[in-house]
């Protein structure tokens, strides 16, 4: 064995040890990531069959144009379940049937802040098209109101809410 063979063997040995060290460090990092994921709390959705039945009842009442009873039922449910986005969607639907797109837009805004899946086309709770139509109608109502009374500060605040909703819609997966 000459000098070149000894240097080559030494080089291959050093590179092999370095590769083993990198694999060992990578394996430790992967195990640490898995441990971290296991320790994080899992977000669970609580299914309440009573709430689902009441929501179905409210939708049936709304389809029968019984908006007063629907509104009373939905408002009582909002008192019981204030963090359920479906209820705010129902309130917005009631307001749209009453031709109040600005108020409906605020209800949809609350629903989206509680459950962003209403704007995600990949989920079964997607409501993006309905929300977009409502925002467009609200914008038209606000613009006509501002043309009649340019100093109305409430309509200016409503316009900011419309722009916020448009940004949410544009940034969604729908």
List keywords for this structure.
single chain; 174 residues; mainly alpha; 2 domains; 0% strand
How many helices? The count is 7
Structural class: mainly alpha
Q: Mean of the pLDDT scores?
A: 86
Strand content: under 5%
Number of domains: 2
**Low-confidence spans:** none
Number of separate strands: 0
Largest sheet report: none
Helix content: over 70%
Radius of gyration over C-alpha positions, nearest whole angstrom: 28 Å
N to C succession of SSEs? HHHHHHH
Question: N- to C-terminal separation?
Answer: 70 Å
| Rough outline | elongated
Structural write-up:
The protein is mainly α and 174 residues long. The longest helix is centred in the N-terminal third of the chain and has 37 residues, at 3-39. It contains 7 helices and no strands. It folds into 2 domains: 1-37; 80-170, no CATH class.
Quick summary of this structure?
By secondary structure, this protein is an all-alpha fold. The chain has helices at 3-39, 49-63, 67-80, 85-97, 101-114, 128-148, 153-170.
């Amino acid at each position: 064995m000459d000098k070149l063979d000894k240097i080559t063997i030494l080089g291959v040995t050093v590179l092999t040890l370095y590769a083993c060290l990198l694999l060992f460090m990578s394996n430790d990092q992967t195990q640490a990531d898995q441990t971290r994921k296991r320790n994080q709390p899992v977000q669970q959705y609580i299914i309440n069959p009573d709430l689902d039945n009441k929501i179905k009842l409210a939708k049936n009442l709304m389809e029968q144009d019984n908006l007063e009873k629907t509104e009373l039922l939905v408002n009582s449910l909002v008192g019981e379940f204030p963090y359920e986005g479906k209820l705010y969607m129902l309130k917005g639907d009631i307001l749209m049937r009453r031709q109040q797109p600005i108020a409906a837009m605020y209800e949809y805004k609350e629903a989206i802040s509680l459950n962003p899946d209403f704007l995600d086309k990949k989920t079964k709770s997607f409501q993006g098209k309905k929300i977009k139509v409502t925002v467009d109608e609200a914008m038209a109502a606000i613009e006509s109101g501002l043309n009649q009374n340019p100093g109305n500060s409430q309509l200016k605040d409503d316009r900011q809410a419309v722009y916020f909703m448009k940004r949410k819609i544009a940034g969604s997966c729908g």
